[in-house]
Design a protein that fits this description.
Layout (H helix, E strand, L loop, with lengths): L2 H15 L6 H10 L2 H5 L4 H4 L1 E3 L4 E3 L10 H8 L7 E3 L7 E2 L9 E3 L7 E2 L12 E3 L32 E3 L21 E3 L10 H8 L6 E3 L21 E3 L20 E3 L22 E3 L8 E2 L12 E3 L8 E2 L21 E3 L21 E3 L5 E2 L5 H14 L9 E3 L16 H6 L3 H24 L4 H25 L1
Helix pairs in contact: 9-10
Bound molecules: 2-acetamido-2-deoxy-beta-D-glucopyranose (8 copies).
The site of one 2-acetamido-2-deoxy-beta-D-glucopyranose has 4 residues, from loops.
Protein name: LRRCT domain-containing protein
Organism: Drosophila mojavensis
Keywords: Leucine-rich repeat, Membrane, Repeat, Signal, Transmembrane, Transmembrane helix
């Protein structure tokens, strides 16, 4: 250790210990003890920010007015521990300077005012794996390829070879430079969410098409109404695509080129009924499809999902208009014979829609579903819906009881608001016609007997006011149940 270095070290150590009220002499005695672990992890930064050694995290959220100084970086660099994550969110930082060499892997710079980035800002952060620049003021002009320039080697700049995840969401970007990712060839996750692109122009398409390792792409809330057909030609391994909150009126045709896509989220788009031309193209790898909060779908027609023959999870919840589910929405006539092929569905969510009946033929292996969510729909409890009432709901009750609650009848009028589960055991057909008199009579007798007994008890215990109140409440609920029962058999 040279003299200058030693001096700087002592100065930083003192600075770090000062706020803790440790005096000069205490520092000196620390020095003589020469316990490396004890002195090497006291960094000046840890007095400003929270240093969480256990989680290898420096948390400077809402704690800084500017970037770390050179001395602060040096004191960090000299510690035996390398903090893998640094959070600098909510600090009003406006620019990113060239950062010194440090082994940080996850750098969170969201919720600042960052509008400019020095060229090669990250080139000495050779371990950098995840970079979050979301919720800043980045523009298309700021984001030039050399911003992500890697370390300089003898001939040329090397790529930032560890950077796998880049979040550019919630900025002011309208288009991407066509070479923006030239230094990031191994990027696996990219978010462009909530930047108002409106259209994917040719330059942006080129930039995205060049990301041959891309696995996850978030293009939600970008005001997009179309996608270029060929945008997914480049990212062959694209696994997850999020297109929520855009302006698509149809299922984008470009999807037919994302051959390896496994997960697709299309929530909150004005996509119309899934029928005719507007059905899903062949996406044989797709396992997870989510289309919730669709305002304009009332019909899922024949063949809507027929080409998704590997689908295991289908989420169609919160589609307030959705009223018609065609029996051939999932099936495909593959062999030309008597049997249809169905995807190996495991989870089906149809909650919070406007469905009245569930056609039995919609699926074959209902018994293979581990989740069937039918809650909060205006179910029709006529005989036409018998399969759902007599078979599906009891099955849901035995596997996932929570999902059997709030599956209620809307029709016929006399069963309105009644849990479907409650009419399973009774012969619902005759119940609706009011002829199962013995069964109903017994229930009425019980329901009438209880309040009479309780009322008797209340009279008996008159004077004990806390008890009186309780019994009154109990009486009220029981009386309302009796009146429900009257509705029930009219
Ligand atoms: C950090 O350690 C190096 C040698 O390992 C030394 O040259 C340098 O002066 C030290 N810096 C500080 C700030 O302690
Ligand atoms: C420094 O690290 C040692 C173990 O590595 C730990 O016992 C000690 O509490 C740390 N000191 C500070 C100030 O973080
Ligand atoms: C950032 O700026 C806002 C508004 O000027 C202020 O309220 C906030 O305290 C600043 N944050 C920091 C960490 O200085
Ligand atoms: C980054 O590393 C290079 C080469 O080691 C060095 O010349 C340069 O000063 C470093 N940049 C910063 C900001 O530390
Ligand atoms: C469908 O899923 C199975 C099992 O997960 C998998 O082995 C098969 O390769 C998938 N088919 C396609 C076309 O991806
Ligand atoms: C739900 O469907 C019924 C017909 O079954 C229709 O009258 C009603 O308008 C629909 N509600 C919505 C919100 O689309
Ligand atoms: C499948 O298609 C063939 C020929 O188009 C037809 O004869 C057969 O009935 C169809 N199978 C089913 C189950 O609809
Ligand atoms: C629903 O399940 C519960 C146990 O989880 C059982 O006690 C009850 O009888 C079931 N209801 C019907 C109608 O099958």
């Amino acid at each position: 250790m040279n003299i200058a270095g030693a001096t700087i070290f002592i100065v930083t150590t003192i600075c770090a210990l000062m706020p803790l009220g440790i005096t000069d002499s205490a520092v000196k005695s620390e020095e003589t003890k020469t316990e490396p672990s004890a002195k090497q992890n006291t960094s000046a930064i840890c007095t400003k920010c929270v240093c969480d050694v256990e989680n290898s995290l420096i948390d400077c959220t809402n704690k800084l007015t500017d970037w770390f100084t050179d001395e602060e970086w040096k004191s960090l660099q000299n510690q035996t521990i390398v903090f893998e994550s640094i959070k600098m969110e909510h600090n009003n930082l406006t620019t990113i300077p060239a950062l010194p060499a440090y082994g940080v892997k996850n750098l969170y710079l969201g919720y600042n005012q960052i509008a400019s980035i020095t060229l090669g800002a990250f080139q000495n952060l050779t371990e950098l794996t995840k970079l979050d620049l979301s919720n800043n003021k980045l523009t298309s002009k700021t984001l030039v390829p050399d911003v992500f320039k890697g370390p300089y080697s003898q001939q040329d700049f090397e790529p930032l070879k560890n950077l796998k995840s880049l979040n550019l969401g919630y900025n002011l970007i309208h288009s991407l430079n066509d070479d923006l990712f030239e230094h990031l060839p191994y990027l696996e996750e990219l978010s462009l969410s909530s930047n108002t692109f409106q259209v994917i122009d040719r330059l942006t398409e080129t930039a995205v098409a060049g990301l041959s390792s891309l696995k996850v792409l978030d293009m939600s809330f970008m005001e997009l109404s179309t996608l270029p057909d060929t945008i997914f030609h480049g990212p062959r391994d694209l696994d997850t695509l999020i297109l929520s909150g855009n302006l698509f009126k149809q299922v984008p045709k470009a999807l037919s080129f994302s051959k390896n896509l496994k997960r697709l989220v299309l929530d909150e788009n004005p996509i119309g009924n899934l029928e005719g031309e507007n059905v899903f193209p062949a996406m044989t790898s797709l396992k997870y499809l989510r289309m919730a909060y669709m305002q304009d779908i009332y019909k899922i027609g024949p063949g809507a999902f027929s080409e998704l023959q590997n689908l295991t999870e289908l989420i169609l919840s919160d589609n307030k208009m959705l009223t018609e589910l065609d029996l051939h929405a999932l099936s495909k006539n593959v062999t030309g014979g008597d049997f249809l092929d169905y995807p190996p569905l495991d989870k089906l969510y149809l909650n919070n829609c406007n469905l009245t009946t569930l056609p039995r033929e919609f699926l074959v292996r209902w018994d293979k579903l581990s989740v069937l969510d039918l809650r909060f729909n205006p179910w029709d409890c006529h005989t036409s819906n018998e399969y759902m009432i007599k078979y599906l709901i009891p099955r849901v009750n035995s596997t996932t009881p929570l999902l059997a609650k709030n599956v209620k009848c809307e029709y016929p009028e006399e069963l309105k608001g009644v849990e479907v589960l409650k009419i399973v055991n009774g012969d619902f057909e005759s119940a609706t016609q009011g002829s199962s008199l013995v069964w109903i009579g017994i229930i009425i007798a019980i329901l009438l007997a209880i309040p009479i007994i309780l009322a008797g008890m209340a009279v008996y215990k008159r004077g004990h006011c806390r008890l009186c109140k309780k019994n009154e409440a109990a009486n009220r609920t029981l009386y309302s149940r009796t009146s429900f029962n009257e509705d029930f058999h009219i």
